[in-house]
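User: Structure please.
Assistant: Input sequence and predicted structure:
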Amino acid sequence: MRDLIVIGAGPAGLGAALQAARAGRDALVLEKERVGGRLNLARAVGNFPWPAAGQTSGAAIVRGLRRQARRSGVRISPEECRWIDRTGRWFIVRTAAAAYRCRAVVVATGVRPLPPAVPLDPAVARLVHYRWNDIPMRRGGRVAVIGAGEVAFDQACSLAERGAAVTVLCRGARPRAYAGLVSLARSLGVRLMLDRPVSRIETSRIPGVTLVTPRGRTRADAVLVAIGGEPSLPALTAAARRMLGHGLYIAGDAAGGRRQAAIAFGDGVDKAMMAAGTIGKDGGAC
């Protein structure tokens, strides 16, 4: 039994857990993958108020948050939430190994990347990636990045810094990333192609793929897709869904809105404060 269970250990989940620990609540964090989530991929984060002003990598922020979590006594268990139910005054959070009972839940499971809107046969699919560090790196290897936002350009910069020949294909007439990041990408040798909606990705007789657009073809050894994401939520029973906003809270990227680490962290803190109010009304600590 717990006061609070936080599902996901990205910025929102860690923010919620740290706030719960500060309030003296008995909280447990469940994380099925890597602590920090997609923040680990960020080359540079310039608007996070901690650990210091200025730019630092997402991985550095995650390391700092992990240290803070350990000092605060936050417990992180490597488990995947299968589903959430509500029975009586309790939420039931089920994993493969256990069923936890708690008074409140904060779901901070982030987003799953959207796939390209084109068919992918198996030979092509094995060369399509959604995280830059999943791509087998070799100096001079050609990587085509599909996307126009900050995530696309940030990952393009990470690839270019490691010696890849990177081309970013934007669907529209201009990038959606801020101007400074686009300029940095250009300075690193990233090639920018505008008005290039990808209509097909196909294999050829030589290793790699060809991306087909209305304005021509682009060859690449690998493809990185960064066109956004959709909330990645655990299964919620009807009884649990009825408690949304009343003991069950969704925080950070999983709740939609802007995908910024600082916003997600603050939202996690806010949702943990709401959860503390719910726990108090429900009869105090477990």
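The domain at 115-225 is CATH 3.50.50.60 (FAD/NAD(P)-binding domain).
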